[in-house]
Write a structure and sequence with these properties.
3-stranded antiparallel β-sheet; alpha+beta; 3 strands
């Protein structure tokens, strides 16, 4: 998942957010946290804060953390018991939209698709 760095892409952050906090931190300690761009967050404490935000809001975003210009919005896909099994994401480029506009214009669409996929 996430080209070997699940911490820097929304589907990976959704997966990490689905784990118990201690397990999430253990995963972050064990993986290589590559600095892919100047915006990539690699510090464990900062990542744990971002993952806590994902848990609170129910979706994940990144802005240029994986690739310069890349904006990504993702919602989790879970089974009926709430077990995470995937994510549905939308990627755009900073030259076309802002992260705020991406969320405003497409989050409801992703949630609608999520509802159809997980029933």
């Amino acid at each position: 998942m996430g080209s070997g760095c699940p911490f820097s892409v929304p589907p990976g952050r959704l997966w990490l957010a689905s784990l118990p906090e201690a397990e999430c931190e253990t995963v972050l300690q064990r993986i290589t946290r590559e600095q892919r761009t100047p915006y990539t967050v690699t510090d464990i404490a900062s990542l744990m804060e971002k993952i806590a935000q994902v848990r609170r809001q129910g979706y994940a975003t990144i802005e240029q953390e994986f690739e310069i210009g890349m904006l990504v919005l993702a919602v989790p896909l879970t089974d009926r018991e709430g077990t995470w099994w995937g994510a549905l994401s939308l990627t755009s480029h900073q030259s076309r939209t802002s992260l705020e506009a991406l969320c405003r214009d497409h989050l409801d669409l992703l949630y609608s698709a999520q509802a159809m996929l997980v029933g």
